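Encode chain A's predicted structure.
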Amino acid sequence: MVAIKIIPKRTVRTCYFLDGNYLEVPFEVILMQKIGQRKGIISLYDWYNLDQEIVLVLERPVACMELFAFILENGQMDEAQAKNIFKQLVDAAVTMNAANVFHRDIKMENVLIDTTSEVPRVWIIDLGNGCFGTALPHKNFIGTSGFAPPEVAACGEYKATPTTVWQLGILLYEILHCARFESEDFFLEREIDSRLSHTCQDLLSACLTRDPDARATLSQLQQHPWFH
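Encoded structure for chain A:
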């Protein structure tokens, strides 16, 4: 079983790599090749450069669905299930960060979840908006506008780790509240469900902080008491 992703060439960002000759390679392919076949991130098996389109041949886990569709079908997750899923996503984000890859568009629609297991696996998909560079600030936000961190509007630049943590925080908020996250409403009313454990509330607050310098790091998320 594989997944086939067909991308019109007019929409494809490309790189030129010297490998005996200059080759025009889709940026998404370069990012996935850089990451390799790693746990928690969908793998690229092959790709084809056709006349009008690029075709990617991707790993397709059996019996899986988008996390967004899963939540719509099953409703709000309990903390135990959310904890398992979130830990996998944080570990996958650390893997991408170690490869100097910045996804830029982590959201429920870009996560697949296994529907056959009591302890389901998840995979991050779609690096079409991704880039290299996890240290220096980025100027132009590419991704889903509703998931852009507050600093994009505040100062016109953003960094990889604080943005990734922000987007992971939104994802965790949505699966635990079964509701879409709205930045301004959140900052005005600070609506984290008080029925959640104190450590879970603390982790959400650490992710969803307006100041990117005060946000948790990926390493701090991995070590957070909620997981231990």
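Helices lie at 27-35, 67-74, 79-98, 150-155, 160-177, 183-189, 198-207, 218-222.
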